[in-house]
Write a sequence for this structure.
C-alpha cells in the first residue's frame, strides 16, 4: 500500500510541470532519489514526505477506506486536462444537493431587480 502511495508522486509532480531534478532541488535531494521515491523503491522518512508534499503544494491526509474511491476520482479529475465547460459543483457532494436556478452562464435578457423597477 505504501508503494502505491509513493507512485502518486509522479503524476502530481508532472501536473505541477516539474522535473525530477526540480523536485529534488526543492526538497534538498538528488534526482536519483526522487526517481527511486516515485517507483516506491525506498522507504522515505516522514520529513521527506512532508517536504515532497509542500514542494508539490499538496497535503498528506488520512482518508477513511470507505471514501478512498471517491477521493481517487476527485484527484484523477483534478489531474486530468480540462475538457469543455465544467460546472464547479459537478462530481462533488454539492451535486447531490444543488438546485439549479435556471442560469446557464450565458448572458440573456433577464432583467435584474433594479432594472425591472426602472422600467415600470
Amino acid at each position: 500500500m505504501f508503494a502505491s502511495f509513493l507512485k502518486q508522486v509522479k503524476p502530481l509532480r508532472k501536473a505541477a510541470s516539474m522535473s525530477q531534478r526540480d523536485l529534488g532541488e526543492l526538497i534538498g535531494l538528488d534526482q536519483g532519489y526522487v526517481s527511486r521515491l516515485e517507483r516506491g523503491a525506498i522507504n522515505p522518512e516522514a520529513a521527506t514526505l512532508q517536504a515532497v508534499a509542500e514542494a508539490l503544494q499538496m497535503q498528506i491526509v488520512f482518508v477513511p477506506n470507505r471514501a478512498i474511491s471517491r477521493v481517487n476520482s476527485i484527484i484523477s479529475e483534478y489531474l486530468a486536462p480540462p475538457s469543455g465547460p465544467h460546472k464547479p459543483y459537478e462530481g462533488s457532494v454539492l451535486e447531490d444537493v444543488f438546485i439549479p436556478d435556471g442560469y446557464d452562464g450565458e448572458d440573456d435578457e433577464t432583467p435584474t431587480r433594479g432594472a425591472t423597477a426602472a422600467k415600470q
User: Anything to note?
Assistant: The first helix runs from residue 2 to 6. Confidence is low (pLDDT under 50) at residues 115-120. The two ends are 67 Å apart (CA to CA).
